[in-house]
User: What shape does this take?
Amino acid sequence: MDKLPRVQQFLSSKARGTVYHNRCYKTALAYLYQFLNNKYGSLGLETVIDSINQKTIDVYKLLDEFVDFLHAKKLSQASRNQYLTGVKSYLQFHDVDIVPYKFKVRVTLPKIPREDEQPIDQNDVRTILLHCHNQRLKTFILVLASSGVRVIEACAIRFCDIYFDESPTRIHVRAEFTKTKLPRDIYISDEASRYLQEWVGHRLGKDLDKATKSNELVFQVFKTNNRKVEPKTIYNKLVQQFHTLLDEVGFGQRKDGMARRKITFHSFRRLVKTALSDAPAPAGSEYSEWFLGHRKSPYWAKKPRERAEIYSTRCMKYLTFLDYSTLEASGKTVEAKIKELEKEKQIMGQKYEQEMQELREHTDRKLNEIILMIQKNPKLARLKREVLMTRPLKRK
Assistant: This one.
């Protein structure tokens, strides 16, 4: 398929300015290739364009049948729509006219069902990590769960992108691997940093200064001199190991009618987003949007040192899973706050009892005064109690 001139021309055009932008298009064309072989036999990725232009095949009928083909693959609806868009782009690139109104009428697309993703918390991550005995996978999960970095961005981290000499440890994410095509810096927890240093030492030796100058990818296993290791290759191996780990832990459930699992690498990104948004100020929603590389308000601006300090002091404890000293210290802090609240509650209770006692004594004195006033002047018994309570006793 890659050797076909029209396919090469299309993929080359889509690949400009990015590394993986044409991967989705390539997958879409692979599905189209399978569909044409199954449905039409003699048609290929190039001949189908000629057949459409010569009116021997109706493009709208072809695309509608392609939707049914994708549905049988048990892909997510978002993936199906994405691959359909890729095929439309390929056809239009080669002068096949697709009128939007006719496409909407002739091709029926299933609606994307909206459902909440399965959340995970610190205990779930801790359970996964305690059952993980693969050093590379455990380090990779800790980096994801403490930084919220996208999976392919984590796979593309080089040794020279890591700054162990800073606190917290900073990692530079290259622009060509980000979704927004903008570079950014992220931070990882001290716990993740220790595991990452051990992995770097295992890969390149104990000299971190020398190791962090290398341009090799951190999570590649073997050093290859003949070919360049792609982040996608690293991802394919790690995701297989992660799925095996999920099955061992009991978290391997799949979504209804889909091959996709409920817990994925992207679940750690959601965990980080939630933790940063719920963290005390000056962390919060704006900080979390910047940290994850989303679009943020242009008016939210802090210096790099302030951003690092916010992560270190406000967020890191919520993204630590195996460092029991940190967890214990965090627990002691919570316990101290609880004791302080209990003490404050006790003081407030004592103050309330004292005020009630003073009120009862004041009321008793007033009632005694009223009784004495009535005894001296029986006509006062006709007055309302509220009036008597406000009139002081006149002493002769």
About this structure: The chain has three domains: 5-106, 122-322, 345-390. Residues 5-106 form one domain. Strands lie at 162-163, 170-173, 184-187. The chain has a mean pLDDT of 85.
